[in-house]
């Protein structure tokens, strides 16, 4: 879904949009909330729904009276799927806007471009994206699911359903490379065999040679960690080659950009995925949220996925911490977040884990049918066990590192 910049400005209280200029009158008494996401370029399939729910969260906070008697002002930056804009806008948000919090980044590369900047300026940072785990940073709260919560669930489920021989395809950057290592680890732990692993730059659209390799290798299933609009071509070409009937697909990424809406039902039926949220999550908070979204946007409402919901829930976790701390200042808000703060959102109860600054959350396995996800398994209150293997902010709160940067083995995980 493409959302125009004009649409982001209309109908929103205390919203300014910067791409790159900021539009609107500054409100000096407002609490300042900055968002940096990809609203254009190859990653806009992720950024547009995230921006919409971020906007919705700020509107809901302000409709309820704001925070501490003050309005929350949202500045929304479009990084245009370009890493240097993340660095530029993170500096602007922290040093120029003096934002109380920044919620930003989609890819791991964008996170690692801005995380040190926000740490240096001591600006509270939320990364609301499902990712590979391993960030250990007192100033950074990661609300998205990690491999111990999702890959560890979908791999054995798919192996029990389809067989033990696995072929892995993944995006060629931190997320894909590290998640592929987690996939291989969980395949081996469940008695399976990884036949091959292939990585693809984000702009690759021709997957013919790889599909031929998969046909020759004859795995029981393929597991995908492909990312971005270009990589949707893999699923189309895979189905066109008649592969879905013989060698099915599981994924840790398909669906977080609503890719299922970009291919036909015939091309996608049967794909498995695991996330911290699907629209089919059966709880009253989710039902009310979806009804409100539909009333607001009508037929233009995007399908909700983990990235979009975590953007909403991340903003709400921050708001709850501001209320608990009775200030928007960074250190008291961090203390409030790390006190075991929870929020009951559309995905279920999300709770901050103080050891890692990640979240315990409900996790779901979905199966695609007619371009909609049906939940086939649910797991309550799953901890961020992967990052907890290497990170202890209770013992060492001065940490500010990405501990999986050089892979799992370098971090001491066999």
TrEMBL record:
<dbReference type="InterPro" id="IPR028082">
    <property type="entry name" value="Peripla_BP_I"/>
</dbReference>
<dbReference type="InterPro" id="IPR000709">
    <property type="entry name" value="Leu_Ile_Val-bd"/>
</dbReference>
<protein>
    <submittedName>
        <fullName>Transporter substrate-binding protein</fullName>
    </submittedName>
</protein>
<dbReference type="InterPro" id="IPR006311">
    <property type="entry name" value="TAT_signal"/>
</dbReference>
<dbReference type="Pfam" id="PF13433">
    <property type="entry name" value="Peripla_BP_5"/>
</dbReference>
């Amino acid at each position: 879904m493409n959302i125009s910049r004009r649409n982001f400005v209309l109908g929103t209280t205390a919203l300014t949009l910067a791409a790159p200029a900021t539009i609107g009158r500054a409100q000096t008494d407002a609490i300042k909330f900055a968002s940096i996401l990809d609203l254009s370029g190859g990653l806009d399939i992720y950024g547009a729904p995230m921006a919409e729910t971020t906007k919705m969260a700020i509107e809901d906070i302000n409709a309820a009276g704001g925070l501490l008697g003050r309005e929350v002002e949202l500045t929304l930056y479009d990084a245009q799927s370009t890493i240097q804009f993340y660095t530029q806008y993170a500096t602007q948000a922290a040093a120029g806007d003096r934002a109380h919090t920044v919620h930003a980044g989609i890819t791991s590369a964008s996170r690692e471009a801005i995380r040190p900047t926000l740490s240096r300026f001591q600006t509270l940072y939320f990364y609301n994206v499902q990712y590979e785990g391993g960030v250990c940073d007192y100033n950074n709260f990661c609300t998205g699911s990690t491999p111990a919560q999702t890959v560890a669930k979908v791999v054995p489920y798919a192996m029990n359903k389809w067989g033990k021989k696995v072929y892995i395809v993944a995006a060629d950057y931190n997320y894909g490379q590290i998640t592929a290592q987690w996939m291989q680890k969980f395949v081996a732990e469940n008695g399976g065999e990884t036949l091959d692993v292939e990585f693809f730059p984000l702009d690759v659209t021709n997957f013919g040679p790889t599909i031929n390799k998969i046909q020759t290798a004859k795995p029981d299933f393929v597991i995908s960690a492909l990312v971005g609009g270009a990589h949707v071509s893999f699923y189309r070409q895979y189905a066109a080659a008649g592969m879905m009937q013989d060698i099915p697909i599981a994924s840790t990424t398909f669906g977080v950009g609503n890719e299922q809406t970009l291919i036909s039902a015939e091309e996608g039926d049967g794909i498995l995925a695991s996330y911290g949220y699907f629209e089919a999550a059966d709880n009253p908070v989710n039902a009310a949220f979806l009804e409100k979204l539909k009333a607001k946007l009508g037929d233009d409402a995007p399908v909700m996925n983990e990235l979009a919901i975590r953007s909403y829930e991340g903003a709400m976790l921050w708001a709850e911490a501001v209320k608990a701390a009775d200030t928007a200042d960074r250190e008291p808000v961090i203390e409030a977040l790390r006190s075991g703060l929870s929020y009951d959102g559309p995905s279920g109860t999300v709770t901050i884990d103080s050891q890692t600054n990640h979240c315990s959350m409900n996790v779901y396995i979905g199966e695609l049918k007619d371009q909609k996800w049906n939940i086939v398994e649910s797991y309550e209150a799953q901890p961020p066990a992967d990052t907890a293997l290497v990170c202890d902010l209770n013992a060492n709160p001065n940490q500010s590192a990405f501990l999986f940067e050089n892979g799992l083995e370098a971090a001491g995980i066999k």
